[in-house]
Specification:
Helices cover 45% and strands 15% of the residues. By secondary structure, the chain is of the alpha+beta class. The chain folds into two domains: 236 residues, no CATH class; 31 residues, no CATH class.
């Protein structure tokens, strides 16, 4: 389902319509309404077209190299066979992976969609029914794995099997047991294509993308009024580069907004 948003109140209403009992949605912001859902690994390999690289083999190489060198930069080293945590760390530090960043907060997703967007442009916020994606994934598990996952939804053996041996294209919502700072602060999670040799959208369309009740695309017309209202309200919620990216880099990035909207500047 694709809806058009022109006012702050319309965005709130669309998101509120998803807040139903026993349902849980996740969100992703795009700075252009033309962008498709694709992972950094997919985009990296597609820089040279046509790419003859096997994506699963490329991922294995990247994982091995990252594991070999990570101890040089941190003493907090994940368990050797915790593939999901290794991939999450790679994603956090900018290596190409098949993880796609999402957030449980519609307002964090909106911030990322608006960050740096100019008046008159169109951006987009995607929403996906996380609970239904998870249930679909579980419905295709062998009985042994299903039982293990019902006892521990972070069961490393089952998640490694899903990442490496799942037989069908599908997206699955996953998060490692140990969250890094960015995942915790941004209320982040991942959608993962379980067949890495197909595009994210191919995995998404089997079958999530064929059921419009399971996802929503909110195309946002970035008028002057919308940008002013949305950035002001997000600032009131304490959603900014300062809070989402702690440290001097986040503070420096935040100045792009405070110089644009004088009423957000701190009073001295």
């Amino acid at each position: 389902m694709n809806v058009r948003i022109e006012k702050w109140e319309e965005f709130q209403a669309e998101c509120n319509s998803l807040s139903r009992p026993k349902e849980r949605w996740i969100f992703r912001g795009h700075q252009s309404s033309d962008w498709k859902l694709s992972t950094t690994l997919e985009r990296t390999l597609n820089r040279l077209t046509p790419s003859d690289e096997n994506t699963r083999e490329a991922e294995s190489f990247l994982l091995r190299e990252f594991k070999r060198h990570f101890h040089r930069y941190s003493q907090s080293v994940p368990h050797e066979d915790d593939t999901l945590e290794w991939l999450a760390l790679m994603q956090h530090h900018g290596a190409p992976t098949r993880l796609l960043d999402w957030t449980f907060s519609e307002y964090v997703a909106l911030f990322f969609a608006l960050d740096g967007v100019a008046e008159g442009c169109e951006c987009m916020v995607w929403a996906v029914n996380q609970k239904q994606c998870w249930e679909k994934f579980k419905s295709e598990l062998p009985e042994e794995h299903l039982q293990s996952l019902n006892e521990d939804d972070k069961d490393r053996r089952v998640l490694n099997w899903a990442l490496n041996e799942f037989p069908n294209p599908l997206i699955c919502p996953l998060n490692p047991f140990r969250l890094n700072d960015r995942l915790a602060i941004q209320r982040g999670t991942f959608l993962v294509p379980l067949d890495p040799n197909r595009t994210f959208m191919d995995n998404f369309n089997e079958p999530i993308g064929r059921n419009e009740a399971l996802f929503k695309k909110m195309t946002i017309q970035c008028s002057r009024d919308f940008l002013h209202k949305a950035l002001t309200e997000l600032h009131k919620m304490n959603i900014s580069n300062v809070t989402l990216f702690p440290g001097i880099d986040g503070f420096a990035r935040s100045l792009n907004t405070t110089v644009l909207l004088p009423h957000l500047r701190p009073q001295i």
